[in-house]
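Researcher: I'd like a structural prediction for the single chain below. Treat it as a standalone chain; there are no partners to consider.
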Amino acid sequence: MSDPSSSTVLMPRWGRDLVRLLPIRSQFIISGNIRDHFLMPIAGGRATPVPLRRCLWAVLEKQFYRFLLIHDPVDGLRPYPHGEAVMELAARLFDLKFQDGAMPMSLDRLSLLMRDLSRMREARCALLIDFASRLARHPDQLDAEEHRFFLAAERLAVHALPVAPKGKEEAPGEDMKPRFNPILWLLNRPQDLPSWLALDNIRIESLSIGLPDFETRILAARSYFPMFAGADGAPAGAAESFALSFARATEGLPLTALADTAQLADRQGIAWDGVEDAVQCYKVGEPENPWKQPYLKKRIAAAAEFIENRVKGQTQAVTKTIDILMRSVMGLTGAQARSGGNRPRGALFFAGPTGVGKTELAKTLTELVFGDERAYIRFDMSEFAEEHNGARLLGAPPGYVGFEAGGELTNAVREKPFSVVLFDEVEKAHPRILDKFLQILEDGRLTDGRGDVAWFSETILVFTSNLGIYGEDADGNRIQNVKPGDPYKTVEARIKGAISDYFKYRLSRPELLNRIGDNIVVFNFIAPPVAERIFTGMLENVIRRVREEHALELGFAPEALERLKAWCVGDLDNGGRGIGNQLESCFINPLARALFAFDANGRTGVTVTHIETQDQIVTLKLA
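Model: Treating it as a single chain, here is the predicted structure.
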């Protein structure tokens, strides 16, 4: 581990580049992670996070610059660092009149100041143009004043010369070699300036500020250890363990995120050994984590019976799903990787025939884990068969119409960070849209057109597919690859093989299949005994609805019940959904017709005595 007291180690890459290029570059375009904090040695050399302008000044001060002028479109011009001596020096050198520490300034006046600053020899100084992305309404459609300003900046970059301060400097050991008095543009993105400004201009350098690396996050994390509960009485080595955990959990986040997380932990009394929970709280914006609740283990211990009440006859699929769910609850998803803390809690690929309970199992998982089926988010991927539909799901790119609205998926996950997200019939989506799932499955995050991040680290992702049920023969004819009555091992092997071939050879995206791993859950066909149980359950729902709506107890003559059952379970090609469709057309529709004409006359019960088909119309008799 590097010594945190070393300023050389602490200076970020962009700072080192700035120092190296000051003798040969007159302007710098600084973009990227510009609103973050950066580590500097403050008291006793201790690494302390500070804002960018303070870090910039620390870099310039070591190169013997006397002050920094900061301009932004709102406050105008201000000298930095704050103080009477600096303000008086800046006012004298550039004939400035500050009021309350600032001076309003038009673009024309600013261009004159830039010219005077580039020629200043009495004292080294620099100009920082903050919020430069907001100087022009549109960088490629400038008005006359804006165009004049940026043209002056371009000419100045070309004609400015490095200068050496005149006379003997006050500070002993002052470096008298010529350097530029630079203009520093602070931008969100480089393209926020006119594209021609830096084109083929070797005097303008672009510096990109990236997110902090792992070592920097560790150094920052140490300074936040005292803000967590129990830090005072923590055992030896706890601070270093805390810093490592904090740094790993905040991968891909700025240093300001560490500060905000520590503030949340301080207010909520989170202990130092719960730092990962604090980070998750910061990411998803929810203080209560359902995955950490003690009652969840009890629910999952009885999950098989709970699921069987809603998803019947899928013992193998349910067992594998519960195993994956247990792994998620124990926090072991992705445990084989060095860093997998941001991955979704679980990723399941439900495959099998239509109507066998794939979607129903996803809903059941939602109720089981989160106690509320409304935490279930569903996307029908057949709606995203065209590549341009990806803008609906993920948000339009910046600058396109509607980008400010975000994406349907990212918005839904930000609204419900603890949820089951179902992507139904995933094979029907455009392959370019499927590519986005690589980032979600690996990093657990997705950024929409507005730049907002949606975290998937607390979700369960469920993909459903009918791949493998049908295939093609040598002549290209559609044939059934698996059929009712095949052993489950045969069904599982053929469906998994078809899924593998689809992603590897048809889509040429084996990496997506690799992210899903062994989480493919194959559902079997509905067997006749299971179909009868499904039929009985659906019929009980109908009986309950009649009782609630009409205060009538519905009964059946044995012969009528057997005939209805035979009609509903006679063809199982469409699974449980087919049974429901048959029940609706063969019983619910004629029942509604019969009840409409039936005179209950104060009765509390009614019996279906006869049911038959005449001229393809089902009729029944009530008594």
